[in-house]
Amino acid sequence: MSSLPDIFSTVVQGLGVTLQVLVLSIICASIIAFVAGLSRVNTNPLLRGFTGFYVEIFRGTSLIVQLFWFSYALPGLFNIHLGSDIWVAVLAISLNYGAYMSEIVRGSIQAVAVGQTEASVALNLSKFQRMRHVILPQALRMMLPEYGNYLIQILKATSLVSLIGLTDLLYYGNIYRSTHLAESPTVYVLLLVMYFVIALPLIAFTRKMESVSKKGVAS
Amino acid sequence: MTWSWEVFFSVIPMIFKGLWITLGLTLACYLFAAVFGFFWVFISRLPWRPVRWLFGWLAEFIRSTPPLVQLFFIYYAWPMMPVVGVSLNPFVAAILGLGIHFSTYMSEVYRSGIESVDKGQWEASTALNLSTRQKWMKIILPQAIPPTIPMLGNYLIIMFKEVPLASTIGVVAMLHIANDYGAQYYKYVEPLTVVALFFLLLSYPSALLINKLEKKYNRRFDKKTLA
To answer: Which regions span the lipid bilayer (chain B) (predicted)?
Structure first.
């Protein structure tokens, strides 16, 4: 146990990469989820079909497979170089979780009572006004608890990026473990605790949102 | 590097062999998680508050930390543990690691099922002087579990997609075969595409099936009793 400071100072070098991937993925995944979720309730069948296809492809295959696929196919097959592997990881994670989260966006929008849409039509609101002022405010509160859950999922997914060579927490943990075999239990317990500490605010957010979404609504 | 259909078709039989290992491992992990999930439910109903609190946080800890790190812990760190440490083969480590991780999710599903059983059913079992065993086996669980079947099915699909994590500790299933092939011939994209296709071919129809089940069950277990 005396080596705990050593382990910590090694592993902590990867904290930046983990947080960077986490924050960028959350931002990109949220944008993708909103665009895809709104597209799936659009009246244009072509747009609906295309996003439906995207969502099913990314939900139907495994994130770890997608991550490997992107890291080999982007530079090799399509000759796309994103500059840094961080962007490959962010792309794979946010496309994957964007697909999952778009289903929450779609589900919540569809869960808003039909009467609300009918009333907005009767009040002669434009399509945009109807979405912006009537449907979305009600749908948003329904999304929030699930959204929080997915943020924790994204955090867990960031541990995969060490597999494509990014130097995150787990990467430095593995490096340390490979030279200090006897201390591997300490290394991985420390890693788990560090991930948990990062997850704590997300857990608190999710719980807060659960109470927010229940407040003032007749169930 | 260009796309080669020749490579694409030639790796299909190889990866198909790995599919059975992936499926077997999924089933084993799922069974472990399904059984172990009851353990968390059991603990959460014990009358000792500190124990409930401790295990509640332990479940939260396992649920919100990466399964990959947990897998590494079980495979690399467990043998180094004093006294209890034993070497595990990759299969067992994967079943334990992923099984324990997902058991914390399964327990939430069971919990939601148990909580949805009408209060009158509990009171009636007490009034009829049923033993604890009879109450759970004959009254509560038969009503709590069936409505959760679609959710349980969903977790089977989710676990199927998490099982490739086991390739990182050396379980030779689909992803591992694809990566090995890639390392040998420097052709990664084709075998990985085949792996992705196999995942899609299996998980998409199962997801549709679960959707159908869900609709059917929602009709059957209409929330009449809660109203």
So the answer is: 20-42, 54-78, 84-102, 155-179, 191-210
Separation CA B220–CA B227 (nearest Å): 15
Which homologous superfamily is B5-226 in?
MetI-like (1.10.3720.10)
**CA gap B201, B193 in Å, rounded:** 12
User: Chain B contact for A185, CB < 8 A?
Assistant: yes
For residue B95, give both structure tokens: 């079943």
Segments making up each domain of chain A, as ranges: 19-166
Scanning every residue of chain A, which has its alpha carbon at the shortest distance from the alpha carbon of B179? Answer: A68
**In chain B, which residue's Cα lies nearest the Cα of A66?**
B196
Distance (Å) from the alpha carbon of B41 to chain A's nearest alpha carbon: 20
Closest chain B C-alpha to A210 CA, distance in angstroms: 15
Count how many pairs of residues, chain A against chain B, have C-beta atoms within 8 Å: 119
Task: Give CA–CA dist B149/B217, Å, rounded.
Answer: 9
- CB within 8 A of B181, min separation 6: which ones? B11, B14, B187, B191
pLDDT digits (tens, 9 = 90+) for A155-185: 999 999 999 888 999 999 999 888 888 888 8
Kindly write down the DSSP assignment for every residue of B33-51, as one continuous string.
HHHHHHHHHHHHTSS-HHH
Whole-number Å distance between alpha carbons of B28 and B57: 26
Tokens linked to A121? 């039509």
User: Taking the domain A19-166, which CATH number applies?
Assistant: 1.10.3720.10
What is the number of alpha carbons within 13 Å of residue A200 lying toward its C-beta?
7
Domain positions in chain B are 5-226
Residues of A in contact with B66 (CB under 8 A): 155-160, 170, 195
What ipTM score was computed for the predicted complex, to two decimals? 0.88
Phi-psi region of A212 (alpha: psi -120 to 50; beta: other; left: phi over 0): alpha
DSSP codes, A141-203: HHHHHHHHHHHHHHHHHGGGGGGGT---HHHHHHHHHHH-GGGHHHHHHHHHHHHHHHHHHHH
Which tokens hold the place of A91? 């792309």
Distance CA B102, CA B88 (A): 19
* Interhelix angle B189-220/A63-76, nearest 10 degrees: 150
pTM above 0.95, yes or no: no
